[in-house]
Amino acid sequence: MMFVVRSVLAISCLALPSCGQSTPAKKSAESDAADSPSDTSEPSKADISESFAWPSVIAVMGDGYPGAGDPCRRLGESALTVNYLDDSAILVGCPGDRSDPAAVAVLAATGGEVMAVAEGVTMISVPQGDANAGMSERPGGAQ
Fold first, then answer.
1. What's the pLDDT tens digit per position in 48-91?
2. Residue 117 exposed, middle or buried by CB count within 10 Å (0-12, 13-18, 19+)
3. Spatial distance between the Cα atoms of 140 and 143, rounded to a whole number of angstroms
4. What are the Cα distances from residue 69, in Å, to 4, 19, 62?
5. In this prediction, what percent of the chain has a pLDDT beyond 90?
6. CA 59 to CA 51: how far, in whole Å?
């Protein structure tokens, strides 16, 4: 009886590909994955700004913020931004959410405040100081 069980197991293993060696296609795919290095680096500024399509509902100005080529942009007035514009701040949009590197960098460098995230853009209000500085009140309260 024991001989029969062993014979059946041996025949079963010969018939099943999983009991034998791996197929050449599997082995090739595994070795290709092992041979190619995985890219874990952050995308460059140029990669982010070139790959992101700014939504048409957002008025984008300039070629980068704070500098040319940076992924963030100054935002102008549109139906989506009108509630976040302020005469004492610049409204900046960065691709992605508030935790993406571009938004984090602008927030850290400027002390800005996230106003909203919409249409794949984080809108940040960057303070520019008191818009009324230097203005004096006229005597008698007249303006």
1. 446 799 999 999 999 999 999 999 999 999 999 999 998 899 99
2. middle
3. 9
4. 75, 56, 10
5. 52
6. 18
* Structure tokens, 101: 């590197």
Residue with tokens 């939504």: 55
Residue with tokens 């082995």: 27
For residue 134, give the nearest of 76, 88, 94 by alpha carbon.
88
Residue 102 in contact with residue 95, Cβ under 8 Å?
yes
Residue type, 68: A
CB contact set of 9 (below 8 Å; sequence gap of 6+) = none
CA of residue 61 relative to chain centroid, distance: 20
Are residues 102 and 94 in contact, defined by beta-carbon separation less than 8 angstroms?
yes
